Amino acid sequence: MSATENKNTGNVVVEGVVFICEDPPYSKNKPKKFTVKKDDSNNESTIGRKLFGSTDNLVGYNHAILTFDRAKVYITDLGSGHGTWTSSTGKLMSKKASLLKDGSTIVFGADHDKTDATPNAIRAKIEYLKSRPQTILKPILKVTPTQLDNNLEVPAHPVTRSVTPDTLKPPDDSKKHRRTVSLEIPIKKDSNPSKEAPVQKRAQAVASTELQREVKIPWSETFRLGFGVDALTGESMTRTALTPFKMSGSPRPKQSKTYVNTLHWNDIRSLQDQYDMEIGGTINVAPTSVSMSTRISSLLSKNASASTVLIQYRVIGEFEPEFIPSNVALQNGLSDLSEDVFRERYGDYYLAGRRRGYGCRMVIVCQVDEKSSTDKVEVEAQVLVENFFKAGAAHSNAKSRSKNCSILHVMIETYGCTADASYLSNGLLSPNDALAALPKILTDPKGTPRIGILYHYSSLKGCNLSRSVTVHADVFAKIHEMRDIYDDLQTYLEHPAFQAEYYTRDAERVRSAIRAFEKKRKNLVRNLKLDRKSKRLQDTDLYAQIAEAKYKAEALMKRHEFIAGVKAMPRKVSRTSNLGAKDSLIFFWEVGKVGGRLKKKMKHYSEVTFGPGFDAYEAEWESPLVTPLNPFMKKFGRSDHPDQMNFIRIDPEEVNGEKGRVGDGNDKEFFNFRLAGGKVYVIGWTLSCIWDGKAEPGPVIQLDDGENNFMLSNQLSVKLDTSRPTKWHCRITFVFQSKYMFPDLKLDQRNISEPDIDKDF
């Protein structure tokens, strides 16, 4: 970069960031732009689903924060559930600031560039909003420094003037010439400092927040139109400050929207209605009950197999909002109350309106012909379900089967629909019965309150209640983050991993965190403290408790997802070959989960990872040179060389409590890797050798484990081809069984009898 560019860059200040979305439902011809401007008070701005108008849970309410630093902008992921990705940095680390480059690409709701697997993630291009740099004027006078005369007489002090605040000064005339060089004569200091007025220290400003004029929050059964809500506790008040009023008319339903997606346990929050996810800004929102039905979680658990796919078909509709009359006013005499007394009795907001909603959720169990439900088959199942229910009951040609999928049965749940729809929630329906019921359910929906619309009392004529409260601006964001964690923990308890008796302590940790939040939430606003040095909120013991519970719960669910994925993998051994040195061939055998990235080198084996939360261990060893049997040894059926490689797990008690690899070089007839430690699951392995013979038929190995090929077993045993001199290299990937005790996956360890290492052949 040239010196001129450096100078110009120093004068440029980024005032905002524009996110340009060109992906569907938008296009490059008509992109949608979302602008975030710098908050001058702290040079930071928060980004969340509210900015993009998103109802999908991939983008968090407080997903990330932008920090403006003159010509640069930094972005920090605030621990979002699905992550953030940029083209300049890659996956963003949680709570770590990364430079957001002008012209780069960012994805909210995924830790990779947006793909077909994450269609609802938000992908946007970055464009800086920069202030126009001021023109730097060159000095019109060249001033030569001269030696000052110590005897120079300085004029007396001019008459003192009161300092004019900057806010009252007239704006500078942009056409007026500004002096660029100072020619003022330095003034001597007063020799009598006692005449100077004492400097008074400015009193430290009290942290305060301006409450929003309007807030939308999830509806609560305790809400009543016209009654108050306390912003600091989220509790509804027992009295109203408004004059009596009557509601008129009834709201009309708006056009409904249909959503189709595949249900997985790694994204169980998709089972929640989006209404439960919308939370207000400057209010400590009371938690709402999780709408996910235990029947759905039970259905997920029972159908967690490679031969079935669960598709969710949702129809969600809203009504136009309804408001109390606009001519309501404060009751006589209430305007004379002090702010503290008024807030204590009537809160900060009053319930000015509500929005009703209705919805029908169907969970469809699809049978898959293939052994594993690949992404391609899942898309086929989604298309099958969508076309089947869009065809309608009147169409006799609605097909419940495609090339590789068929619809087995359907479970239905509704809210706010016709009054006689409750009978559908009693059991499972056939595809045709569900198809016939759908139009009846959605005909003339009644709706049920889903969103409460709050107005601040200052919006009323004659009410002088201040919107300023002595609470730090970060407090509400922190509470909303804790509430999101609380919602997560509630849904996590439905995961089948927490149904296992082996993990009752993990489930109790989550329940304890939930109870603690419910007990302490109302007083969180007052308990969150500001660290004076870092100017940030200190984490409370409650935040540490629920954050730890979330972290450990997600780790447990990740292990469940990992081992379930291994179970669904094909178990056929693949053989490949490459050309080696001196016209030799290198043969490879491979099955299962292999090729993890090295995470930690250990004494006897290594820890590897296949992604966040997908950790395993890897052991590898090589045989000595194997040579063909001579005719004499073949005659007597004995061999001085091993013809078999084994991975064997033994109890540490057998070797005086020693753990790790034991017995190196002690076994003649077998090439063993004996691991002293806990029980294991073999999740993948590779075998290779250099072959100087012909490519066909090439070396042949033998596995005595049917079609399983030792996948998810407690050992590995491979009989080698000793017809040519070579060395064999084996690498095995395994996990310890104690971390994967999930009865729903039916991972009963297949205890294959160990080979007799003392047997003669």
From TrEMBL:
<feature type="region of interest" description="Disordered">
    <location>
        <begin position="157"/>
        <end position="181"/>
    </location>
</feature>
<dbReference type="InterPro" id="IPR000253">
    <property type="entry name" value="FHA_dom"/>
</dbReference>
<feature type="domain" description="FHA">
    <location>
        <begin position="56"/>
        <end position="109"/>
    </location>
</feature>
<dbReference type="InterPro" id="IPR008984">
    <property type="entry name" value="SMAD_FHA_dom_sf"/>
</dbReference>
<dbReference type="Pfam" id="PF00498">
    <property type="entry name" value="FHA"/>
</dbReference>
<protein>
    <recommendedName>
        <fullName>FHA domain-containing protein</fullName>
    </recommendedName>
</protein>
